[in-house]
Amino acid sequence: MAVKFKDYYAILGVSRTATEDEIKKAFHKLARQFHPDLNPGDAAAEDKFKELNEAYEVLSDAEKRKRYDELGPNWQVGGDFTPPPGWARGRTGFGGFDDRFAGEPTGGFSDFFETLFGGSRGARAGPGFAMRGVDVEAALSLTLEDIQHGATRTFTLQTTERCASCGGSGTQNDQLCSVCHGAGVVRRPKTLSVHIPISVREGSVIRLAGQGEPGTGNAPAGDLYLRVHVMPHPVFAVVGDDDLQLELPVTPWEVALGAKVTVPTLNGSVEMTIPAGSQGGQRLRVRGKGMSRQGDGAGDLYVKLKIVVPSQLSVDERELFEKLAATSGFRPRDVITGDRP
Questions:
Q1: Which of 27, 128, 295, 326 could pair covalently with 56 via S-S, beta carbons 3.0-4.6 A apart?
Q2: Regarding the domain with residue range 136-230, which homologous superfamily does it belong to in the CATH classification?
Q3: Which residues pair with 128 in a beta bridge?
Q4: How far apart are alpha carbons 267 and 299 in whole angstroms?
Q5: By the 8 A CB rule, do 51 and 12 touch?
Q6: Is the Cβ–Cβ distance between 272 and 284 less than 8 Å?
Q7: Roughly how many angstroms between the first and final C-alpha of the chain, as a whole number?
Q8: CATH of domain 237-337
């Protein structure tokens, strides 16, 4: 009976000369991508996952792969396939199974697989299959206060864990694990705590060893890399690596006459002097009141002056402003109109 030919190398995305390790890595990556637990309700992903298991069942077994390769590389994918004469006579004994399994269910493998291997059933990870878990990257949002003072933050991620039912092998009694469906992992929320050093900045990466995806077999887990994102602050903006800037509202008389004002910092308020004759938009520097450095002081705080006036004037205020307007000889627009006193 003719069945549809399957190119197992193409399914795993590897060449026909791929090494055992390359085949393992390709399967490991794709199986996680299309795992049913990560794609609930996606029939296409489930079909792809089954197809990957079937391809790996063949290519991870030296005898099955050799037998498959005897067909040659020129079969048309999806085309009709009829086994060569005498094929069935050499079909037993693969993977430690024998003819007593012939005709029994194979865990959803295709007719093509059944035609080639019949009695061999159950996708598995292969003898001695072990691979370090995949590294994972996630975003970690922090406040400026977290970075300035150091902190411990608790957060929850959706991660995969080694399947307790099969121990991460993906199989039970030479059949697909009914819990993880052959992937060796299951999806679970994980809550972690991380210490925030004061040296981190926007884009910094914090590594948590062994908190990534679980390894396959007895291999260790991958690492979790947390990429820092600094949330916008209502008062301060980060300038460069270690400096901060804030916009400070000031009155016309404070900049005209000079004044001492209170300025907030991340470590409490400080007093700053505004020199007489200061201008709106001018930046004044307060040394050492910026971002803390690990064991090496701190950056600076830049205070940008913003002149504001009352939105509503009292009778006395209006009288004073009118008197100022009548007596002042200050003509700020002369520089753009060309007028001279």
A1: 27
A2: Urease metallochaperone UreE, N-terminal domain (2.60.260.20)
A3: none
A4: 13
A5: no
A6: yes
A7: 106
A8: 2.60.260.20
